[in-house]
Specification:
heterodimer; A: about 270 residues; mainly alpha; MetI-like fold; 2 domains; about 75% helix; globular; B: about 325 residues; 15 helices
Chain lengths: ~270, ~325
């Protein structure tokens, strides 16, 4: 490959990078701009002054903190449940031979592709019959069910990736099966557990349709609150961008944290066995 | 032989000897617990929570959505709890409704546009990534991760701000570039223009995953294949066709199917941008389902829309499943 060609491709690459980074830059830049610069006809790609007033206003707006709290509770609870049930299922599916193993595998695989968006009506009716509408547990239940198949399938992949010889060696050395699992397999599973929970967390953190349907009267999660913010507060873009920034931060931290596993995390669950 | 194969043993080559528990006394509960956790029942016990959850929270809704689609279930029936079967009425009503067909057509075109843009763009970015300077690649990957990490609703809000009629940076930039017609131009005036903005948003959100996945595939192509192609005097286009594309093909299929499944079901961005407006001009099937069911309490009719969506998705998923099972067989 010629030098000029490489230079050209690199230039295009920088342009693409700019295209993808710009909305994030614009979000933060707008959030930091003084209010009088926001609704002006001037062309200003770089903020001319800095203020944290939008963050103070945005966070102080009614409903922000409570919806942030709701989002955190719902996402964490769903991830915790999915992790426990998923790990319990992953171990026998990866390690043990028993009757019906193929059937369980197929169930998890098929469940992973359940079209949640198209199950809104029956879910609504079911959660309503449990009397869990307008409360967090109903939403947690749905997110847990949505995250579980992916979690079980991915963790099964991670468990399979750990050589069974390691566990056997521990058992030869006098560990029971449980001790061998706890002392050998579980620590090695650490990265897998982290990656899987991050993906489930982000899914729950992002979810909008069910949150919009199940929760009401200001007791909502952040995505729903944010969507109403735009229509209710109209042109307070500084506040909207500040709130969006706060909404983005945890996910960003998580993503940079599991960066290496990003692709394998998604594809391991989706494609590979 | 037949007995031991049924029992749960580790998948490894040498099953370890069962741990004999000599020291344990035989209290009734202890024996019961031990039997419960015996090698034979242990796998089922471990699988119980996951299986129960999947069957109740996924299996039942799937069954229920079909049952509901054959019922008249409005607010009255919901409150009284009466089950009123109405046969195929819901489907008859839906299939003779012009709005349904307009929404279906819109959903299909929208999905196609999203998939073509996402996979095409992602493939291009992945191929470019291979040929750029190392530091540019790092910058690009960082930008892609940032875009990927942005929560759907945060990105949607920022796009609304960028496409804002009066103070949006896009209109300002276009005016600055000499396209003065875009001064205070409204991007959300027509359905088509609104849909275009949504497609751009979804493409922007979807490309990072596709690009990273395909880039991993590009890296996986053995270098000696390129050497061989070079020795045979292949042009760079021929090399791409014969080596890179052949190697990437299965992966491209996978990302196409995943994107199809994701984009067909999109609700969040469509709803958050204009709630299907203006005048239903950006209304897709998931929005129709929400409007019919949750917003106006015609649960039976909405379930019929869901069933039609599910049937479409099953056709797509069956293809995807076949792909996945083929990779699974290698196991």
């Amino acid at each position: 490959m010629g030098r000029t060609k490489k230079r050209l491709v690199s230039a295009v690459g920088l342009l693409v990078a700019l295209l993808f980074a710009f909305p994030i830059y614009w979000m933060v830049a707008t959030a930091l701009k003084p209010a009088n610069q926001l609704l002006s006809d001037d062309y200003d790609l770089v903020p001319l002054g800095l203020t944290f007033q939008h963050f103070v206003d945005g966070i102080g707006k009614e409903g922000f903190l409570s919806s942030l709290e709701n989002s955190v509770i719902v996402a964490l609870a769903a991830v915790a449940f999915a992790l426990i049930a998923g790990l319990l299922a992953a171990v026998p599916l990866a390690r043990l031979r028993f009757r019906g193993r193929k059937g369980f595998l197929l169930l998890v695989l098929v469940a992973q592709m359940a079209p949640f968006e198209a199950l809104l009506i029956p879910m609504f009716l079911m959660i309503r019959s449990f009397d869990l509408l307008h409360a967090l547990p109903g939403l947690i239940l749905v997110y847990f069910a949505a995250a579980l198949p992916f979690t079980a399938w991915t963790l099964r992949g991670f468990v399979k990736g750990i050589p069974v010889d390691l566990e056997e060696a521990a058992m030869v050395d006098g560990c029971g099966r449980w001790a061998a699992f706890r002392r050998v397999t579980l620590p090695l599973l650490g990265p897998g557990l982290v990656a899987t929970s991050v993906f489930s967390f982000v899914t729950a953190w992002n979810e909008f349709l069910y949150a919009l349907t199940f929760l009401q009267n200001g007791n909502v999660t952040l995505p729903v609150w944010l969507s109403s913010f735009v229509s209710v507060f109209g042109t307070d873009w500084g506040g909207a961008m500040a709130a969006s920034t706060v909404f983005t931060l945890p996910v960003l931290v998580f993503f940079l944290f599991v960066q290496r596993n990003l692709v394998s995390g998604v594809t391991a669950g989706a494609v590979k066995g | 032989m037949s007995v031991t194969t049924k029992a749960a043993v580790p998948a490894g080559t040498t099953p370890p000897a069962p741990r004999s528990t000599v020291s344990d006394g035989g209290s009734g509960i202890g024996r019961f617990v031990r039997r419960l956790f015996s090698q034979r029942t242990l796998p089922y016990l471990l699988l119980l929570p996951a299986t129960a959850t999947i069957l109740v929270m996924l299996g039942w809704p799937v069954l229920s959505v079909f049952l509901t689609s054959f019922q008249k279930l409005d607010l009255g029936e919901l409150v009284s709890g009466k089950v009123v079967w109405n046969g195929l009425d819901n489907f008859r009503n839906i299939l003779t409704d012009d709005v349904f067909w307009a929404d279906t057509l819109r959903t299909v075109l929208f999905t196609a546009a999203c998939v073509v843009c996402t996979v095409g763009g992602g493939l291009l970015v992945a191929l470019l990534m291979k040929h750029m300077h190392g530091w540019v690649r790092v910058v690009l990957q960082l930008a892609l991760v940032l875009a990927w990490a942005m929560p759907i609703l945060a990105a949607t809000t920022v796009f609304q701000w960028m496409f804002d009629q009066n103070y949006g940076i896009l209109n300002k930039t276009l005016v600055e570039l000499g396209f003065t017609g875009y001064h205070h131009y409204s991007w959300f005036q027509t359905g088509l223009s609104t849909m275009t903005v949504i497609v751009i948003l979804i493409t922007w959100q979807g490309i990072p995953f596709v690009a990273f996945t395909l880039y991993a595939g590009v890296l996986g192509v053995p270098a000696d294949l390129y050497e061989a192609a070079g020795l045979d005097g292949a042009s760079s286009w021929q090399t791409f066709r014969a080596v890179t594309w052949t190697a990437l093909r299965p992966l491209v299929n996978v990302v196409i199917f995943l994107s199809l499944l994701w984009d067909f079901k999109v609700f969040t961005q469509v709803w958050a941008i204009r709630m299907g407006g203006p005048d239903g001009g950006s209304q897709t099937l998931p929005v129709l389902q929400y409007l019919k069911g949750i917003a106006t309490s015609h649960f039976g009719a909405a379930a019929a829309v869901s069933v039609i969506m599910i049937l479409c998705l099953v056709v797509l998923t069956a293809q995807n499943l076949r792909l996945m099972l083929r990779t699974e067989e290698v196991d």
